[in-house]
User: Fold this.
Amino acid sequence: MEQSLQHNLTLLAEKAYGSNLPRYSDFLSVSELEQYEKMKGELSFASPRAFGGYEGAERKVVGFLAEAFPIVCLKIEPVNRKFSDELSHRDFLGSVLGLGLERSVIGDIVVKDRTGYLFCLSRMADYIRENLKAVSRTSVTVSVWEGEVDSLVEREKVTVSVSSLRVDCVVSAVLHLSRGDAERMAKCGLILVNGRPQEGDKKVREGDVFAVRGKGKFVFLGEEGKSRKERIFIAAELYR
Assistant:
């Protein structure tokens, strides 16, 4: 799979460079994006860039000589909210994939107030709009959403103290993990900083975006002072 992805991305880059026209991949998963980051330097001749439709997206499309990414956001909402089930991310994803679609044409799904905001490749938008009639047992309508998705993503500012600005220390404090667990996750490549696996002893920087596999995601906002015992107060913004 890794060799196939490398081959496909290289081919897209060469086609973009040869034709001087943009080329785009399908949505890549977090693990596939890790592979992309490792080979990004080899593709620099075609100006690679990854984008998922909004800041902080986990699944992203890689574009070469990219202009407007072929991504559409669809708003999936109950026909009658009063009688709607409590709909989860799994419900929306399962119903969309139940239309016979591949996972690679679907990006993130943001769920708020029983409504799903689904990112998909633009070539699939009309098909989903015309064929998705229900999520779980709830009848829905589907329309193109052109609002600000960032405002839909719930975030919570937290302040914690750390002994050091190392990656493992920050992850441990913000996500309430033991230091040992954070160290092990870093060694296993489960802590991504700005989309790349990061070693536990690396120093964090303001604005770094952390994605910790299976534990959560947050943005490091910076230092906010020190205690009498020289512990460092830091602020982070957690994605909920």
Remarks:
- The chain has three domains: 2-64, 71-152, 155-239.
